[in-house]
Inverse folding.
């Protein structure tokens, strides 16, 4: 391996034919440009029956250290992008999503623009945007940390058994706020505000706003409205010891841990943000309109003669 060798991680699974074809095109384009495509071991095993040539590609970790990866190109929807963020966690490599799914809120390009996106990766014509991530700790009744993880979208405390309600106390910055029975509680980042948080009735938060949303799920309480707290706040969810059943913690729908009665989940801003590669100017309003198919008919446009610019 030479000092100047460029390693680009390609993240794709073989569940769909168009994704396999896209992976083949991306790999070929990178190789033609003199870069070395790298695959996660799991992805290489999945793609091998359809693309025998991937057997010659280096595997992440086994052949190429994570710190040697320049960028991750992700072919898929938001779930695949979250998996890629997990793969490169702890390294400087940004993630560039090319949407092969339906919504693809985290993706930067659509499949029709894939070739142009790869060209810009090759020429390093992109900027890196840092997104707030969550640090999540679970403590037992003695205060001992029994589990630690992180989340880009959300950390969710949920009831583990369908027939039983979960009784919790919400705490903000070491002060109790309210206790109630519920189906769970979602703590979301701005990035995740259009995911589970949105479905649960939480607010959409612009990515440029540093904050966390706290949204109870089906709470039996007079005061159990969605909250928006500052980025340095510490949000704790205590599973009351009198619970007959157990709860479960889910982070980004990918990592989980059982919560026994008396467990305490503490969610804070992570000191390590998630890095996303961006090809286009930030226009979150347009993304909302496009992804959610929002009606904008009748809009006349900003008044360019207004003092201070468009309004």
């Amino acid at each position: 391996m030479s000092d100047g060798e460029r390693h680009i991680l390609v993240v794709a699974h073989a569940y769909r034919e168009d994704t396999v074809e896209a992976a083949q095109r991306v790999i070929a384009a990178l190789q033609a440009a003199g870069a070395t495509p790298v695959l996660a071991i799991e992805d290489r095993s999945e793609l091998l029956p359809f693309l025998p040539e991937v057997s010659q590609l280096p595997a992440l970790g086994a052949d190429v250290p994570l710190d040697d990866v320049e960028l991750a190109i992700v072919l898929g929807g938001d779930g695949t992008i979250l998996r890629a963020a997990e793969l490169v966690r702890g390294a400087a490599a940004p993630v560039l999503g090319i949407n092969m799914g339906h919504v693809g809120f985290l993706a930067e390009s659509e499949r029709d623009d894939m070739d142009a996106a790869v060209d810009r990766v090759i020429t390093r014509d992109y900027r890196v945007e840092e997104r707030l991530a969550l640090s999540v700790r679970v403590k037992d009744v003695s205060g001992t940390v029994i589990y630690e993880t992180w989340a880009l979208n959300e950390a969710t405390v949920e009831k583990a058994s369908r027939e039983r309600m979960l009784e919790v106390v919400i705490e903000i910055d070491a002060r109790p706020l309210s206790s109630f029975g519920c189906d769970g509680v979602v703590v979301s980042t701005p990035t995740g505000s259009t995911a589970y948080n949105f479905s649960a009735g939480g607010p959409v938060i612009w990515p440029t706003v540093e904050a966390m949303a706290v949204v109870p799920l089906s709470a039996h309480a007079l005061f159990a409205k969605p909250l928006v707290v500052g980025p340095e706040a510490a949000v704790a969810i205590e599973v009351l010891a009198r619970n007959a059943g157990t709860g479960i913690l889910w982070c980004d729908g990918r990592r989980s841990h059982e919560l026994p009665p008396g467990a305490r989940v503490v969610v804070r801003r992570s000191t390590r943000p998630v890095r996303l590669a961006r090809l286009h100017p930030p226009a979150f309003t347009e993304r909302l309109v496009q992804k959610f198919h929002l009606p904008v008919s009748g809009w006349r446009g900003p008044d360019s003669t207004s003092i201070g610019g468009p309004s």
Remarks:
- The first strand starts at residue 7 and ends at 11.
- The mean pLDDT is 92.
- Helices lie at 17-32, 41-47, 78-87, 114-122, 196-199, 284-292.
- The CA atoms of residues 109 and 117 lie 7 Å apart.
